[in-house]
Amino acid sequence: MLLAITWNSDRVLLLTARGGGTLQVERAITADIEKGSNVSVYDTIRKTIQTEQLTKCDTIIVLPRSEVEVRQMSFPYVPVDEIPDMARFQAAREFNSYDVASPLDYLLFDEISVPLGYSTTSLPVLGRRILASMIPSSQMTKLTTLCDACKLRLKRIVLRPSEVTALWRRNSNFDSSQTYLLVELDSEVVSQTVIHHGQPIFMRSPRLPLGVFRDDAEVDDGDATDSMIAELKRTQFAVSNEVQPVTIGSIVLCGTTEKHKQIADDIHAALSVSVALFDPWSTIKHGKITSETLPHSEQYAALIGVLNEVAANKPSDIDLLNPKRPPEKVGKRQLVTLVSGVAIVLLFAALAYGYVRRVSLENELKDLQNRVTQLKEEEKVTKKLRTDLSAIDTWAADRIDWFEQLEWLSQHLPKSEDIVLTDMTLRAAGGTGNIDIKGNAKNADVFSSMETSLSGDTFHRIRSGDKRKEAGNGRYEFRFDNMSVIYQPNASVAANTKVPAAPVNKDNSADNNSSPDRSSPSGSEVIQDKSSDKNNALTDGEEKNINAGKANEGAGK
């Protein structure tokens, strides 16, 4: 769990949350500071943590601007690694309560070589510029002692204006090209931070004699607002006279209450600058905590800002617990140790790479062996397909017009009232076609008549199979099996000679011109099985089976 702590002249503010990429605020706690008593801020914090049972948390302390010394420093254009030492060297002259043990951190400004409105002929090119912050070592001792007494794990000590700036940078209305004056109000202090190119370049926290958010009924709100506007004007004047002057384009006021709206209107009327209200709780998940249900909700802005940075594993602009330091100089012994360590690491890396490579090659070999096995199985399937295709080619090479033969067969079969076909098989081999049929006839005379009709030309001959009489089969009492009609187109004439049509029955002369799928002159029908496609050809004996199925009424039905 994360715990952020800050305070002002009236109260201590604590905020707990859970990180993990997205910040989720759990509790917002406020503890009033007793005025006129001997109870210090640290005592109030300790008592609140014990009461709320907030021990063993990762803790960030957010220091108010009034408890931190802040100075702008300028250096020649030196490497960034040299700035920490130069900042400490100059801090002895810049800061009033500096000692060698005092924590010091800084923010390196974006480099702008020449101030706006000047040229390099009238002003030398600027070097490095930083915003340095420092607290006395005695104050640092108090903070670490407080965390030890409360069993807290101190992770950062940051500056309140810089964390409010970090939160404003996350807002959707933030524009990095704009210069803002960020204003926070409490009962006595108006904290002001000038943000240029997204960086806090100027900070002030003047104390107002009349206050702004005070519950004292004797205080005139108009006089308090006038006093605050006067401080804002001083800030505008101060930043416009810096070495690199800036002009404030917009004022951002933390808070969205009705009183904040009224103050924003007064500021806009007095300074003729656009004023926007900023709700610090608008960018995070905070459950039931809202600006309306939490008193002084706008004063949590810095706590929300630093918790967002911790949850995202981002460093703070200024962190007095983890200040920027120059890189450590490597000695001869350390260099030998470093080289030896690198050599050992490379050796283990080579061994690890060899092992991983071996495992990879073994897996690749297994995959190839599996692929060979798969290809052998596919080869078997391919051979079978080639055999089937060879049979189809042989079938097609005989060039027998089966539609013509089926038409001839339909014309020479008896009437459907006298015979019904139950099975038909077409075979071709060596230029000879066989039509094997099975079925039932009305009687033996009908079967004999059919044999005579089917063997009545020079191209066809009949080979009868089994035939017998079956009782109990209705009107079709004569059964015949494996009767073959053998077609030999080259028996006596050329291969392309058409089979002559059979003589026409006088009784059925009206049916002679019917199509193959209609009644023949003798009243018989033949229906072809659609399985005559080449892809369904048989491989054994190069046969093509076409099952006509059982017919209920006539031949082929």
Give short descriptive properties of this protein.
557 residues; five-stranded mixed sheet; 32% helix; 19 strands; 23% strand
Can you tell me about this structure?
With 557 residues, the chain is an alpha+beta fold. It has helices at 41-52, 83-94, 137-149, 160-169, 221-240, 258-271, 301-311, 332-397, 402-412, 444-454, and strands spanning 2-7, 11-18, 24-32, 58-63, 69-75, 104-108, 128-134, 153-159, 179-185, 190-196, 199-204, 250-254, 274-278, 419-429, 432-441, 460-463, 466-469, 478-487, 543-545. It has 10 helices and 19 strands. The radius of gyration is 51 Å and the shape is elongated. It starts with a strand and ends in a 12-residue tail after the last strand. The model is unreliable at 118-125 and 493-557 (pLDDT under 50).
Provide the gyration radius in Å: 51 Å
Estimate what percentage of residues fall within beta strands: 15-25%
Q: Summarize the main sheet.
A: 6 strands, antiparallel
**Total beta-strand segments:** 19
List the uncertain runs.
Answer: 118-125, 493-557
Q: Tell me the structural class.
A: alpha+beta
**Helix coverage percent of residues?**
25-40%
List the helices and strands and how they pair.
Layout: E1 2-7, E2 11-18, E3 24-32, H1 41-52, E4 58-63, E5 69-75, H2 83-94, E6 104-108, E7 128-134, H3 137-149, E8 153-159, H4 160-169, E9 179-185, E10 190-196, E11 199-204, H5 221-240, E12 250-254, H6 258-271, E13 274-278, H7 301-311, H8 332-397, H9 402-412, E14 419-429, E15 432-441, H10 444-454, E16 460-463, E17 466-469, E18 478-487, E19 543-545
Parallel strand pairs: 1-4, 4-8, 9-12, 12-13
Antiparallel strand pairs: 1-2, 2-3, 5-7, 6-7, 9-10, 10-11, 14-15, 14-19, 15-18, 16-18, 17-18
Helix pairs in contact: 4-7
